[in-house]
Amino acid sequence: MGALFRRLIDDLGLNQARLAAVLGLSAPMLSQLMSGQRAKIGNPAVVQRVQALQELAGQVADGSVSAGEATDRMEEIKKSQGGSVLTSSGQTTSSSGAPTVRRVVREIQSLLRSVSAAGDIIDAADALAPTHPELAEFLKVYGAGRTADAVAHYEGHQS
């Protein structure tokens, strides 16, 4: 987590206090996350704000969002309540109003990863594999796999 937060600080031109404020965390909590004293964020709204900042940092890096626009977007992110992409609107949806596949997948990943570490998820999947192979695959793909692989899995299981 420390590397992720340091990247956000660098890419978005923030300091730790400003990043903590945008995320809705206390500065000491952010410091604990960055130093590895804490490993998980229990608040799903904060997890979604982290994801939104990651997307914003990518847009700043590729030049599709200016520094001024990024500042405005960070204020929007700071005010966001988080919540499920399955029921929210705005940037998490496509032009048809449906949530994007990537956003749905990221929410599933975030939920699983907020509950348990990847190694524990793999152990659980291995235990389930003999009797529930589909569930074991789901846990491995979404709980410990790459987002691109999870998106492909999700798309492959839509009817």
Q: Termini, distance in Å?
A: 36 Å
**H/E series, N to C?**
HHHHHHHHH
Radius of gyration computed on alpha carbons: 17 Å
DSSP helix fraction: 55-70%
The count of β-strands is 0
- Count of discrete alpha- or pi-helical segments spanning 4 or more residues: 9
Low-confidence segments? 84-97
**Please, what is the average pLDDT?**
83
Explain what you see.
This protein has helices at 2-12, 16-23, 27-35, 44-61, 67-79, 101-115, 118-128, 133-144, 147-156. With 159 residues, it is mainly α. The radius of gyration is 17 Å and the shape is globular. 23% of the residues are buried. The model is unreliable at 84-97 (pLDDT under 50).
List keywords for this structure.
single chain, 159 residues, mainly alpha, 67% helix, globular, DNA-binding protein
What order do the helices and strands come in, and which of them pair?
Layout: H1 2-12, H2 16-23, H3 27-35, H4 44-61, H5 67-79, H6 101-115, H7 118-128, H8 133-144, H9 147-156
Helix pairs in contact: 2-3, 4-5, 4-6, 6-8, 6-9, 7-8
Biased composition (Basic and acidic residues): 70-79
InterPro entries: Cro/C1-type_HTH, Lambda_DNA-bd_dom_sf
Region (Disordered): 64-100
